[in-house]
């Protein structure tokens, strides 16, 4: 008797770790690190809102509760995308 194969994973991305230094995503067997220095808007968020991440398309991640939209390229090379803020 052979067993049936399990269905494919419905989650291509998950938060692998949250620490005092930043957040690690696991996407397609690749670990991506987001330091709070480069992604400060994640630092004061709840665990619930950080782990609620969706992969909208390959390499495009969205946190609906936080309205944060990032690509794999931005996460891997934040120096190419400096933060810009306006103080009003």
Structure characterization notes:
It is a single chain. Helices cover 11% and strands 34% of the residues. The chain has 2 helices and 6 strands, in the order βββαβββα. It has helices at residues 47-51, 72-76; strands at 13-18, 22-27, 30-35, 54-57, 60-63, 68-71. The protein starts with 12 loop residues before the first strand and ends in a 12-residue tail after the last helix.
Q: Give the helix/strand class.
A: mainly beta
Could you give the count of β-strands? Answer: 6
Sheet with most strands:
3 strands, antiparallel
Rg calculated over all Cα atoms: 15 Å
**SSE series:** EEEHEEEH
**Helical residue percent band:** 10-25%
- The separation of the N and C termini measures 69 Å
Number of helices: 2
Order of strands side by side in the largest beta sheet? 1-2-3
Average of the residue pLDDT scores: 86
Low-confidence runs of at least 5 consecutive residues? 1-9
How much strand? 25-35%
What sort of overall outline do the alpha carbons produce when their principal axes are compared?
A: globular
